[in-house]
């Protein structure tokens, strides 16, 4: 006996329905694709775009010999290969109670970026001069751009210099005063090698100026290893170097 398998009629009907749906979906997809290709398009290209980094460049000049920091004739030193600014403060034959003050013009020589400057220093550490370093006190403050351009003098950073601690002046009364940067109310010993970080107090716009004022006092009462004999500092010399660094304004 031979057996035959016959597909049920219902199954054949289902196959026809599935095939019919596949054909319909295929046609719809083709039509959708044709519709997308029919939209108008246009292409334009922006060429030769350039991105240039800004520059940080601070320059220094002696603000005491040339009080007007905006003076066209003022010679500024700037750039990593520029000659360093020479000595601006030479205090010789100083006696207890004497104050020496000097101004340094700080110019933002950049034409593109604002800058905030910081200060680092080194002080002679000759063992024979340590007592003088400990005795001398320093204050550093800044004058505004307008004051620097106007040639405003730094004035005297200390009053009442006959006191043992060199009590500090109220610098807020000084013309053009912007901020006290180092030394506190009574000054700090020079032996600490003055330094401070950049901040909004040392912000200089592109092409603008500040005048950094340095005031040093030798108080009349010197505290040293032998307080009864301040003569131990006679004839001693201290040498200090100050390094100004320009920083971008959003630097940590």
How would you summarize what this structure contains?
The chain is 16% helix and 24% strand. It is an alpha+beta fold and 252 residues long.
Explained architecture:
- This protein is 16% helix and 24% strand.
- With 252 residues, it is of the alpha+beta class.
- It has one domain (58-247).
- Strands 1, 2, 3, 5, 6, 7 and 9 form a 7-stranded antiparallel beta sheet that branches.
- Residues 1-7, 17-31, 161-166 and 224-228 have low confidence and may be disordered.
List the SSEs and their pairings:
Layout: H1 9-37, E1 58-62, E2 77-78, E3 99-108, E4 115-123, H2 130-135, E5 137-143, H3 145-150, E6 177-182, E7 188-189, E8 203-204, E9 209-217, E10 240-247
Antiparallel strand pairs: 1-2, 1-3, 3-9, 4-8, 4-10, 5-6, 5-7, 5-9
Overall mean pLDDT stands at 75
- According to DSSP, the number of beta strands is 10
Query: In terms of per-residue confidence, which ranges show pLDDT below 50 for 5 or more consecutive residues?
Result: 1-7, 17-31, 161-166, 224-228
Rg is 38 Å
Helix/strand class: alpha+beta
List the helices and strands in order: HEEEEHEHEEEEE
Strand content: 15-25%
Query: Level of helix content?
Result: 10-25%
Number of helices: 3
Relevant terms:
single chain, about 250 residues, alpha+beta, about 15% helix
